[in-house]
Amino acid sequence: MDRRTIWAILLMMVIAFIPTFFIKKPARPAAGVVSDTMPAPAAGVPAPPPALVPATASPFDTAAPAPEEIIDVTTPLARYGVSTRGGRLTEILLTRYQNQVKALKGRPANLVEPSAPLLDLTLVHGADTLRLDRWQFAAEPASLTVGTTPGTLTLSGRQGDVAVQLTYTFSPDDYQVGVRGRVQGLGATGGQLLVGMGKGLEQTEADSVEQHRASSVVTHQAAAERHDFSGLKAGEVTSLAGPFDWVAVKSKYFVAGLIAYDSTGGRISGATIAPRADAGKNPAHAPVTLQMPVTASGDFSYTLYAGPMEYGRLARIGQDFDDVNPYGWPGFRTLIRFFATPVRWLLVWMHESLKLHYGVVLIVFGLLVRVLLWPLNQKAMRASTAMQAIQPQLQAIQTRYKEDPQKLQQEMFKLYKEHNVNPLGGCWPMLLPMPILFALFFVLGNSIELRGVPFLWFPDLSRPDPLYIIPVLSGISMFALSKVGQLGIQHTPQTKAQAQMMLYMMPVMIGFFGFTFASGLNLYWTVSNLASIPQQWMIGKERMKSMARQIVEVRTKPDATVTRTKPKK
To answer: What Rg do the C-alpha atoms of the chain give, in angstroms?
Structure first.
């Protein structure tokens, strides 16, 4: 590779990876941020949005909490705990995914934080606030095991003239829970249903800081909008104006999303995020409350998806729910997703259809990319060799016409045309693998398919190598590739110094960044570098032969530039 290509790759690497260390995305409120003057809500009780706080207290607010029983619901994919106090979900255990927290290693991942259940319901009816978490519901059946067909759990409760019935439908082959409700006694004006979505998903990853950085609320109207917990300010309530097709609370690998795009069941009219006092310092997140209208008929419905962010499952839900986990940074997501989505699909297909381990998939993928790009790389390297061959003539032109920029450009283009050289031909084919590298940066670090997958000495392909072996190998492979790439290149004293600096700086930089990259990404990059060395060596030998021929021609023929300036005898 010539120095222009190396500088271009280095610049793209800096642009791509520096933001991951320094950029902190703030939350983007859709309807403004309101100062929270209300007292902090009790643990596990989402605060209703300020606009919906009733003017007078409801007699139901002072009622003592009812006794609680937990109804166990088991499906082939998960175990749910449903409380008889308001029908809240107190536990969602994903049996196919283990908790990575050291103290809980080996146990199923639980999405629900104990102090903040999901689907914590509150009815706002006129001047009354009916907190269903204080109601005692009767459950039918007393426990539920879902086999090959969906299973239904019904909960019924009444206080005074108001009766509520909730029907949960659990899917046998998915993580979706259908919820239908009917409220009697609201009257002709209807009311508002407040749905508590907890205060963030339970900690399931070994790296709590990374988990907190990835945690956010995602809303969808025309497009997905992400509001990171890390950008919230303590003591301020973020109000988001709907209507929304869905609203989700996500962590790095899991998501709990409320989907209500069927207008007959009532859309999500808004959402609030109310950070706790320690939200800026502690990964304990903020209570999230959604608002839905309840019509005079008293009916409402929605679907809860609470499970892994498996792209295929999310895509089948529709309404762009797969975009709940967008790849890349704002402004670059469209471009990165163009590559990330097919790259992720191909990796999963190779694993599932060819029965290859994901570590082997990354090795094969690294080789495959280089094989497919071999012709383009060959063309690029030969273009670079051709540019190197005309450097003496190019420098002579630059010296002769340095005072006449217009003439300089004309003579340079004339020289390129005479020798059939494209000055950019040696750069862009070498940069084609970079978008794939950027895509893999996000795919390997955020795709749940790689979570917890060991390979060789790596305990987890989605996390950095704890032994730091693969980052060092990545840097060494980059050095070897750069060293071989300089075969046959004739440097001036100035360019030689630059080339030597890049020869050592680039591998060190790659190795330094590699300490924080997913080990799977480092594995792919190392394999890709090693697979490129034979081609670089072949082109280097070809370049050396070309340089040798040029030396012979210079010694046997007069310089063309000089003969044109001498008068005829």
So the answer is: 31
Q: Which amino acid is at 442?
A: F
List the one residue out of 306, 292, 285 whose CA is nearest residue 261: 292
In 61-102, at which residue ranges do the beta strands (DSSP E only) sit?
Answer: 70-74, 78-83, 89-98
**Do residues 120 and 44 touch, judged by C-beta distance below 8 A?**
yes
User: What does the block give as tokens for 389?
Assistant: 């061959």
Tell me the C-alpha to C-alpha distance, in Å, between residue 461 and each of 49, 360, 445, 458.
Answer: 42, 11, 8, 6
Neighbours of 282 (CB within 10 A): 11
Could you tell me whether strands 216-220 and 299-308 are parallel, antiparallel, or unpaired per DSSP bridges?
unpaired
Q: How far is CA 118 from CA 134, 260, 360, 407, 548, in A?
A: 15, 16, 39, 73, 74
Prior bond of 464 cis (ω within 30°): no
Q: List, for residues 201-225, the tens digit of each pLDDT value.
A: 888 888 777 778 888 888 888 788 8
Q: Can you list the pairs that 280-286 forms with residues at least 24 positions away whose Cβ atoms lie under 8 Å? A: 280/232, 280/233, 280/234, 283/203, 283/208, 283/209, 283/211, 283/212, 283/215, 284/199, 284/200, 285/198, 285/199, 285/200, 285/212, 285/215, 285/229, 286/199, 286/200, 286/229, 286/232
Half-sphere exposure of 453 (CA within 13 A, CB side): 21
d(CA 153, CA 71): 9
Report the candidate in 191, 208, 244, 218 with the shortest Cα–Cα distance to residue 54: 191
Does 48 sit behind a cis peptide bond, omega within 30 degrees of 0 on the bond before it? Answer: no
Domains belonging to the chain, first-starting first, are 3-17+341-389+424-560 (no CATH), 31-62+70-324 (2.70.98.90)
pLDDT digits (tens, 9 = 90+) for 42-96: 333 334 443 433 333 343 444 556 578 899 999 999 999 999 998 999 999 999 9
Q: pLDDT per residue over 100-131, tens digit each?
A: 888 888 889 999 988 889 999 998 887 788 89
